[in-house]
Amino acid sequence: MPANYADTAFTNGYEFTQGAGYTLPEYPFVEPPELASGQVVRHPVVIVGGGITGLTLACSLARLGVAAVLLDEDNTVGVKGASSRGICYTQKSLEIFHRLGVYERIAAKGIQWSVGRTFAGEDEVYSFDLRQQSAYNLSSQPPFINIQQFYIEGFLVERIYELGHVDLRWKSRVTAFEQNAGGATLTVETPAGSYRIEADHVVDATGSHSPFRRWCNASVTAKKGDDRWCIADVRFTKRPPTERHTWVEAPFNENRAVWQHLMGDDVWRIDYQMAPNADPDYVSREDVVRERLARQFGADCGVEIVWVGPYAYRSECIDQMRHGRVFFMGDSAKVVSPFGARGGNTGIADADNLAWKLATVLRGQAAPALLHSYHEERHEAARQNVLVTNRTARFLRPADGVERLFRDAAIGLAKQHPFARQFVNTGRMAVANPYTRSSACDSTGGLSVQNVGFQWADGSRGVVNDLLQWAGGHLLLLVFGRLEAADRQRLRALAQAAPVRCVQVLGAGDPAAVREHVRDPEGHLRGACHLAGHAWALLRPDSYVAATGEAIDAALVRAIEKSLGADQEAA
């Protein structure tokens, strides 16, 4: 076996400098069959990059029974030497992980939280409890779970091995790429030599230093800031409260911002904002970090440093998330500041969005035009997340003049008047992005459906993800209220002609007209579908509403065609 396979280099802006570090699992390199046969094998989907985005896509495809190959240049999860990275996972991501079968592992390892407190100096400016907010309080998953990113990646790897269908190829670095009307070809370097592989569809999940941007001549809108931070992952003898604490002006950090979160393994993530001209080597030196921690938690607080690393923010957004046969997702498509947990979570949503579309097209149940909607929907989400996080970055490090005047006024008012709290921007917490420009959604659709509970016909409890699992990757039509005989006949015809499963949703005592029915005694399912009265909601496999309506008529047929890209194909 050749010994010239280079170790994986850092692929993001984090740089490990101090601490005991994290122990990451390692996976064996298995020589691919192409090396022995010398043949160039064609695969329907090739995913490049085994981070949280690529693994979410691979797991989603495996659950839907789609064969795929995932190529990762390393042999582990996380990034060696920079393994801490993302920690805060939103309700929408947790709902996706529930559908994929890894949520229970995440919940057992991670830390749930819903209370956040914001301070300016010694004063608490305001607090919130996300469980009391309508955007979060009906789902079976909590508003957030804090857990080190590499744990989730490891759980996804375990699940992919359980499900099959996806070939995980470790220590496989893509060194060249080309595509044409007939397909895509990738050159892969491994410890046992190089080979070529062909694909119908290629997904770039390699991260912010993606080579596919260059290979596809993809243009990027970017903005580089000078905001510098330093992470300290630590354990304490004196345990702080399990809440998200944010200081806009921390007196123990030279009146700069600080974040404080608890993660798995009883490890705390402390983010310190540094001066713009701060020396990364100095601010991450162990004695400097310990001095900074002592100022915040007291000299008597015992501290074990697990991981320290400086980093800087930038924002990028690729202008087209699809180039021919290549789909960009995660940090390959956009890079945002981590305020409000809008980074890795959007990559998870990218994967969830594309997976069902690829599966439906590959099964021949949707037109290839459906794949156009991936860019339409996820680029809108990317641009929104870049905009929101850039605004937070400017609030936390305002320019002298009007911006600083506004921030000082907002903080001063918020201490005394509730109306001003909305102006204190320490990160707008991520929610599922709406789709308002999608060719695959009707004007009545485009909103996410929470994983709320209902009752099966036998009285047992179910959740929305159970219905989506029952639908088997097809569209799910929920019809609320009575069904006349003519409606039942139309629905049977629809189910035979299109990949759609139909369910009647009833109140507690309403008589059922069909065998496939559930009960929604508290109206949670109706509310999650953004409905009122007798109506129907057409749900996609990614738990987004494609369309809503009131009658089982031609409008429903058109909505189904639209959600499968058939109207685009005809046009």
TrEMBL record:
GO terms for molecular function: FAD binding; oxidoreductase activity, acting on paired donors, with incorporation or reduction of molecular oxygen, NAD(P)H as one donor, and incorporation of one atom of oxygen. NCBIfam families: PRK08132.1. The keyword Flavoprotein applies. Keywords: FAD, Flavoprotein. This is FAD-dependent oxidoreductase. The keyword Flavoprotein applies. Residues 44-386 form the FAD-binding domain. Its cofactor is FAD. InterPro entries: FAD-bd (IPR002938), FAD/NAD-bd_sf (IPR036188), RIFMO-like (IPR050641). Signal peptide: none annotated.
